[in-house]
From TrEMBL:
InterPro entries assigned to the protein according to its UniProt record, in alphabetical order: ALOG, ALOG_dom
GO cellular component: nucleus
GO process terms (BP): mRNA transcription; response to light stimulus
Record family assignment: Belongs to the plant homeotic and developmental regulators ALOG protein family.
Taxonomic source organism: Brassica campestris (Field mustard)
Annotated ranges, domain ALOG: 25-153
Location in or out of the cell: Nucleus
UniProt protein name: ALOG domain-containing protein
Molecular functions (GO terms): DNA binding
Keywords: Developmental protein, DNA-binding, Nucleus, Transcription, Transcription regulation
Amino acid sequence: MDGETAAAAKKAVATVASSTASPSRYEAQKRRDWDTFVKYLKNREPPLCQCRCSGAHVIEFLKYLDQFGKTKVHVAACPFFGEPNPPAQCTCPLRQAWGSLDSLVGRQRAAFEDIGGGLPESNPFAAKVVSIYLKEVREAQGKARGIPHGKKKWKRPRVAKATLNADDGGGGRGSGVAALVVSATMV
């Protein structure tokens, strides 16, 4: 066998082995999420095929998933609104956590591309309204728990001061190369 034929044979064996191997945890989750979304589209009134799905339908799906959530989100009228660790129970609804929704949308976006859903611009999970909705959910959940999700202000790191001391030739063997002396002021 020449080199090219051997490489092609190895590639074919690797392809067969990878197709028979179980999918990764991420791929399996992505598949389950996609199946749930397709089932949701079929069961809604009126049923909808995925090719006609828009960002509004994705938001509708995310709101539907809230009923299965495990994250307590306090309403504004709740006495524990804005408290990260409430001292007692309340009747506020359970919702999907923002992080879960965000990762779900990421997996669904990838799944849509995997099934050949069309141009990336037609991906309903990549629609601007979906990212706006996710941002609103993040802010609302942050306020309800008293956790701000604003941009972090980064402190500028202290820059080390560098001074150059040129060899003045006092030893006669100076090569004229400057010696770098670094003095950092640490606070």
